[in-house]
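Re: your question from the hallway

Yes, I did run it. Sequences:
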Amino acid sequence: MDEPLLSIRDLCVDYVSEAGCVRAVDHVTLDVSRAEIVGVAGESGSGKSTLAQALLRILPPPAIISGGEARFEGRDILTLSETELRELRWRRISMVFQSAMDSLNPVISIGEQIVDTLVAHGAATRQEARSRAAELLEMVGIPAPRVDAYAHQLSGGMRQRVGIALALALEPALVILDEPTTALDVIVEREILQQIRGLQEKLGFAVLFITHDLARMLQFSDRVAVFYAAQLVELAPAAELRRAPRHPYTEGLLRAFPSVQSDADEPESIPGAPPSLLSPPAACRFHPRCDRVQAICRERQPDLIQLGPRRAAACHLAE
Amino acid sequence: MRFVLRRLGFYLVAAWAALTLNFFLPRLMPGDPASALFARFAGRVSPEALQALRETFGLTDASIFSQYVTYLRHVLTGEFGISVAYFPTPVSTVIGTGLFWTIFLAGSAVLVSFTLGTLLGILAAWRRRGWVDTWLPSTFVFLGAFPYFWLAMVALYVFGFLLGWFPLGHAYGDDLAPGFNLTFLTDVARHAALPIATVVIATLGGWLLTMRNTMIGVLGSDYVNLARAKGLTPSRVVLRYAARNALLPSVTGFGMALGYVLGGSLLTEIVFSYPGQGYLLVQAVRNQDYPLMQGIFLVITLAVLGANWLVDLVYVWLDPRTREAS
Ligand SMILES: Nc1ncnc2c1ncn2[C@@H]1O[C@H](COP(=O)(O)OP(=O)(O)OP(=O)(O)O)[C@@H](O)[C@H]1O
Ligand SMILES: [Mg+2]
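Structure:
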C-alpha cells in the first residue's frame, strides 16, 4: 500500500494557562488518503478545531504542539521552517474556517482576498488573478460581478461559499472543512455540501470534514473518526460505523441523532456532561457516562485497538 | 457617497450653530465690546472715527436681527473688522498669519506623533513582549503624565537656554526676511523643533497604546488567522490584514486630536512665544480685542469641523462598512 497523504501520529496539543495545562488533542493517530473524505465528529470542546489548526500550524499563542508527528506528502509538518510552511499553506493544505462570519476581512473586498492568495503563491499576476477570482466565485455559485463585494454585503451562506472558493483557489491536496455549515439553514447546508462533494469528485482533493452533526457526516464521509475529550475513540468507514459502532460513545451519538437510525423512535442524549479537559476522568475518559462500565474501565485507559483493516476503537469492551 | 454628503450637511448645520453662538455670546456678556472699545480709545480718536469703527464691527443701533444678518454677511466674506490689539490691521490679516503658523506647528506635531505612535504600536503588538513592547509604552505614558507646561519649560531651559542648541522663541530669526529659500526654511525648522518635539513626546504614548491594544485584538481575530493560513508573509498579514482594521479607532481619535491641536496649542505657543493662533488669543484677551477673539473662535471652530469632515472621508475610504450605513 502506498503512503497516505496525511499521517498523524501521537499528536498532542496543549493550551498552557495559569489555570493549568489543557491537553486539547491527546495522542491522536489518524491517516487520510488521497481524495478521501474523513469526517471528524465529537462534542463541542473535544478538540476538533485545535487539531485542524495544528495541521496548518496556525494555533494562537497559548497553544503549543507538545508532541507527535504529522507527516504530509512525506514531510513532517511540525518540523517545517517558516518559509517551508508558507509554501505548504494553502498550496497543499487549505481550510474553511468554523466562523465564516468572522474569517473574511471586513475592509478588503472578497475578490481582493482571493487575489492576494493567488499572487502570494505566484500562481498568477494581479490581472490574471482577478478573473481567476471571478471564476472561483462562479464555481461556488456566486455571480462574478460580486468580486468587488465586501463580507458585510453577503449573506451567511454566501460568505461560507466564498470561504470554500478561497480554499480551492490553489487546488490543494487536502481541504480542511471546520464545521462549514453550522450557521446555515438545512436547505443551504445540503446545497453547499453537495457542491463540495461535486467539486471534490472533479478536483480530487482529500477532505478532513469536521462537524458535530453525525447524520450529515455519515452521508458525506468515506471514513469517520470519533473524538471524545481530546482523544480519538473510534475510527471506521461510515457505513460500518453506522451499522455496528464499537464504542459506547459512538453508540450514544448515533442514538442522539434519530435520522441516522430510523428505527429509533426518540432521540436519546447521552447522560452527563462532557468532561473538563482541565481534569479529565482517570482511566477511560468516558466511563462516568458509560452505561456498560466495567471495573477495568476505572483502572486502565484503553488503547486504540485495530479491529480490522480499516477499523479501530479505544474501548475495553471491543477487545 | 450619500454618507459623505450627509456628513457634510451635518457639518454645515454645526458650523451655522457655531456662527450663531459666536454672534450672541459677546452680546450677552457684561461689558459689551462697544464700551470696551470706547474706553480704550477715549480721547484719542474722534467721535466720527469711532462711529465708523463701530459700524465696521457691526455694533450699530440697528435691531439684533439686522445685526445678525450683517454679521453673517461679513463672516462669509471673511470680514471680521479691525483688530484692537493690532490696530489698525484687519482681523482677517492678523488671523491669517497666526493660523498659518499654528497649522504648521500643531499640524506637523500631531502628524508626527500620530504616525510615529501608530507605527510603534503596530510594532509593539507584532513583536509582543519584545523590546519595543516592553519599554516604549511605559516610557511614553510616564512622559505624557507630566504637565505639558512643565515639560515644555524644562525642554526650553535645557536645550534652548543651557545648551543653546535651539532658539528660545518665535517662528524664525528677527534678522531674516521670510522667503522660500534654504536659509529661511532651515531657520523655521530650527525654531519649530523644540515645540514639535515636546508635543510629540507628550502625546505619542496615547497613540502607541491605542494602536497596540486594538492591534492585539485584531491579530487574534479569525480573519487574521485565515490570512496567516493562506501562506502570506508575516509583514503582509500584519500590515494589510490587521493594521488597516486596527487603525479605525485611531483615525476617529485623530479627528478629535486635530481639534485639540488648533485650540489647544495655546500652551506650546505661549512657552515658546510662537506667533500662532493661541498666542494671538492671549493678546486678544489681554487687550479686550473682541473682534480678534471672535475671529479666532470662529476660525478654530470651522477648522475643527473641517478637519473632522476630512477624517470622515478617510474613514469612509478605510472602512467599506460605513459607505452604506443608514
Ligand atoms: N485559548 C484557549 N485557552 C485555553 N483553552 C482553550 C483555548 N482554546 C480552546 N481551548 C480548549 O481546548 C478545547 C478544544 O477546543 P476546540 O476549539 O478545538 O474544540 P472543538 O472541538 O472545535 O469545539 P466546537 O465544536 O465547539 O468548535 C476546549 O475544551 C477548550 O476549552
Ligand atoms: Mg471547533
